[in-house]
Amino acid sequence: MQYSKIVMDHFKNPHNQGVIKNADGVGETGNPMCGDMMKVYIKVKDDKIIDIKFETLGCAAAIACSSILTDMAKGQPLEKAKNISKADIVKKLGNLPTSKIHCSVLAHEALAEAIYNYQSKVIN
Amino acid sequence: MPKIYFDHSATTPLDQWVFEAMKPYFTKDYGNASSMHSFGQIAAKAIDQSRLSIAKFLNCLPEEVIFTSGATEADNIALQGIVKASKINNPHIVTTQIEHPAILEVCRDLEKQGVGVTYVPVTKKGIVKVNDIKRAIKPNTILISVMYVNNEVGTIQPISEIGKLVDQLNTKRKNRIYFHTDAVQAVNYCEMNVNKLGVDLLSISGHKIYGPKGVGVLYIKKNIKLKPIEYGGHHELGIRPGTYNVVGIVGLGRAIELVKVGKKNNQKIKKLRDYLIKEISKKIPNTKVNGDIKNRVASNVNFSFKNAEGESVMLMLDMEGFAVSTGSACSSGSLEPSHVLTSMQIPNDLAHGSLRITLGKQNTKNEVDRLIRILPKIIQRLRQMSPIK
Lengths: 124, 389
Fold this sequence. Notes:
With 124 residues, chain A is of the alpha+beta class. Helices cover 46% and strands 20% of the residues of chain A. A 3-stranded antiparallel sheet of chain A has the order 1-2-3. The longest helix of chain A has 23 residues, at 101-123.
């Protein structure tokens, strides 16, 4: 098994890693089987993600997926960010080993959860 | 930056003396050991010499030593060969849950062919209980296969006790039980006298003992009926046909001769390993050592770091020049953590952060000190990135 250079670059120097203290939305997902956990924090203005950060417990692929997801979502309207799919993440990373595809699913879900969390707060 | 190798259970560097012994057989003495002319006879003599060294080491007869392409093939011949030769209608095998895939996957395939297999669990410390083996034995049991030393946690299994049990039971049984052990990880550190162990079959690999890859041995006690699983020439009593891997066999013989010499390093390796455990446990909070602390080979330590995933730790260490390995689910190609750690009832979150460090005779205190400096920083960095604090 081998990771692409893009995966290794994100693993070595993850982008947007950390916490947003007064986040507008927070999403957390985990895979109970393998044990990976992801948490995504978003700051929203005019229905756009103006800031995003992540925390991840997991392998290099999980960290790289979280990192690239935050790059892809930053500055995007919520409706567009919601649609970032696992395939988009895998493509942007220059592919993932088959056994690691589930990490991209986790990243997609964590962001979707964060957006849902924000939107349900706004509605209420 | 010099690279540091701490993965000796995966493979070992070839010893310089082993390499020297092998050299002539690549280009000068290249004969086929089955040929009757002088070229062949030089090669045949070298194989005889290697076989003698191994027989002496195992305290067995030269004709009880069968050369194979490695331990995986030795394990396959042992298990499949015994089943094939068995006259029992529905044969049964007893093994453990912590075996190497070279045993477990063979057993799973044999199950598909109608063979019954009992996979005996181990204690939380990673050691199988002789009584649990005893309880698993049925009237139709034909074979017990228990590894000598576990490759992940380094725990030593009670082989001679199981050997005694099998001997006792066989005096009263209609059909004899054979006892096999995969001894790949034990050779450098443990008693290897097959009579003292009470084993009928035993597998060894070359590349775990500073010998070459692609060569191994299956010891088969005289008069044991075993059918070949591959067919071809008359080599190795027809049990393992195929042109002799002369360089490999010469290398394995030399490596075995050097095990005795190498034993003087074991105390040094153990001291370094114990120092590593002490310092890492002190410097990294929430660290656990997996597997019995006393009943394990000198080279092995298996740590679990809570909230730091093993593959990430391993890759970050690799960037710093260290080679280690992990039992994390993330590195297994499946979603499941190591079957060994699972059998030991280590919770998933701890198995997730498991790291195997296996020392060898060339490692120094300086190298261990470098790891002790760097590893806490890596764990701290990964824990800082984790949503669980």
